[in-house]
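ok so for the tutorial part 2 we go from a plain amino acid sequence to predicted structure tokens. step 1 is just haveing the sequence, like this:
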Amino acid sequence: MLRSLTTAATGMLAQQLNIDVISNNLANVNTTGYKKVRAEFQDLLSQTIKPAGAQIFQGTIQPVGIEIGLGTKTSATMKEFSEGALKPTGGSLDVAIEGDGFFQVMMDDGSTAYTRDGSFKIDANGQLTTSDGFIIQPQVTISNEATDIIITPDGSVFEKTAGVPEPGNVGTLNIVKFANPAGLSPLGRNLYEETAASGNPIEAQPGQEGLGALQQGFLEGSNVQVVEELINLIQAERAFEANSKLVRSSDNLLQILNRMS
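step 2 — the prediction. this is what the tokens look like for a chain of 261 residues:
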């Protein structure tokens, strides 16, 4: 059978995955703190017909060989953790990280997850939580008497109460960073979990040890660029189309060979 059939098929599968990745990026263009994904590919092993460097005659070396590639495969789907645009909301519980870092979240099973989504809420116990009710770590509890909440760039949380002239400190929002954030495993709900590839979390106050500062009243938007993704989509579609034409051409050649036999 012609090698081009299977080779073109690997190209179609690769571009199908590429389109899946692009569609997910576009679907999350308005997701708070979403980080776009880029599909990466690598070529498969080549079939060697004549190796380079082989001795042809006595004292004569083959300068170049004959190798035929067998297609492509997906090597990785890479998350790009470049910072998204900060969008002003004016909400006292909306907090964006300006720079590197992740908020810490305690899951239902007691494990820790991480997020760039700072659209916080207050639960029935006065604790800061995510939109899904997961408690932010370290825990910060707001009293029922609080009339306003102030979150400073270094993560200090203050509350104002009626009749008290000075706001009181109720906690600190420490954040973490990873040596390889692209190695984090996505859990959905704008959450990530630590893996062996990401390295261990390094915790500190915002603005220290290379971590970003906090901005109250802002949320980080997705870092997806719609125009860029649409260009990538066009390129992926054209590549898929070209590989499909190769399949049809190979099929035509096989039909000719069958008629000749």
